[in-house]
Amino acid sequence: MNIRPFQPDDEEAVIALWQVCGLTRPWNDPHADIARKLTEQPELFLVGTVGNELMASAMAGFDGHRGWVYYLAVAPAHRGRSHGSALMREVERLLRERGCPKLNLQVRAANAAAAAFYRKLGYAQDDLLSLGKRLIHDETSSDPATPRAPLPHQS
Ligand SMILES: CC(C)(COP(=O)(O)OP(=O)(O)OC[C@H]1O[C@@H](n2cnc3c(N)ncnc32)[C@H](O)[C@@H]1OP(=O)(O)O)[C@@H](O)C(=O)NCCC(=O)NCCS
User: Fold this and answer.
1) Per-residue pLDDT tens for 61-104?
2) Substitution site in 74, 90, 92, 117 for ligand 1 pocket (most atoms within 8 Å of beta carbon)
3) Helical axes 11-20 vs 30-37, angle rounded to 10°
4) Which CATH number fits domain 2-154: 3.30.450.80, 3.30.465.10, 2.60.200.30, 3.40.630.30?
5) Do residues 83 and 55 lie in contact, with contact meaning Cβ atoms separated by under 8 Å?
6) Best label site of 4, 109, 133, 135, fewest CB within 10 Å?
7) What's the 114 CA to ligand 1 centre distance in angstroms?
8) Where are the beta strands (DSSP E) in 18-120?
């Protein structure tokens, strides 16, 4: 697998990968997620290729205190060959290089396979609750207090 930063031409292949890997959700517009990532540390949005096939992704970032990784995906036909581990190692290397002391990630409670994968790589569950508050709704909202905001590339 060759690992490189995402390029604009990768967009449809990356979204297809996320769909086949079960990572898309109705409340996260993947096009908007990509557009937003391209405004912040786009060099930490990685894809993996084998030949001409884009078959893996990882979207990382460093907020000055912690590193985070999202959208780790390996296409089903390429799993079990250490590609997921290799991508995570590259994410860790890039974050360490920036002085990031700790990498956090969130796993959906139902995703036991991903939790087992991360544990193998040395990740441990922290003793905390993960809280979140949505600031921008990707879907058109019926709540006037939380209108849909323009995407970065549209503003
Ligand atoms: C999780 C995922 C990225 C793993 O990719 P992969 O390339 O198959 O992983 P690797 O081959 O590098 O596996 C590394 C280790 O994790 C273990 N592992 C991988 N998948 C596992 C699973 N489903 N259950 C238990 N262990 C698993 C492997 O056995 C391996 O351990 P070993 O080195 O002792 O053999 C891939 O299964 C995937 O894309 N899943 C769907 C998307 C997803 O859930 N992403 C995470 C979102 S939080």
Assistant:
1) 999 999 999 999 999 999 999 999 999 999 999 999 999 999 99
2) 117
3) 130
4) 3.40.630.30
5) yes
6) 133
7) 6
8) 45-50, 53-62, 67-74, 103-104
pTM recorded for the entire structure? 0.91
72 token code pair: 């780790």
Question: What are the residue ranges spanned by the domains of the chain?
Answer: 2-154
* pLDDT score, position 61: 98
**How many residues are present in the chain?**
155
Q: 143 CA to middle of ligand 1, Å?
A: 39
What are the tens digits of pLDDT across the range 98-152?
A: 999 999 999 999 999 999 999 999 999 999 999 999 999 986 434 444 445 555 5
